[in-house]
Specification:
Oligomer: single chain
Largest sheet: 4 strands, mixed
Helix content: 10-25%
């Protein structure tokens, strides 16, 4: 996963962040804005993931998110859900 900032933004606002992603179902590769993603941070590596809907086939995609991915997504403004256990 990589991030891209658009070249121009209105004065006083930061440029929107876009992320490169791929769908394991249709094998499509595309860029999505940060608001297309959801990040869930759980108590373990198994319960920390990001999700999006593939614009090509419409399938819900869920992928594991390691520390670097979490850092990129949160830094890019992706909405985050912290999962609680217990």
């Amino acid at each position: 996963m990589t991030t891209t900032r658009t070249a121009t933004a209105p004065a006083g606002r930061s440029a929107p962040v876009r992320f490169k992603a791929a769908c394991p179902e249709c094998r499509g590769r595309f860029e999505l804005a940060s608001d297309a993603f959801r990040l869930a941070i759980g108590a373990s590596r198994r319960t920390t993931f990001y999700a999006f809907t593939c614009p090509g086939c419409g399938r819900a995609v869920r992928k594991p998110a390691g520390e670097r991915i979490v850092e990129l997504l949160t830094g890019g403004g992706v909405r985050t859900l912290r999962l609680h256990t217990g």
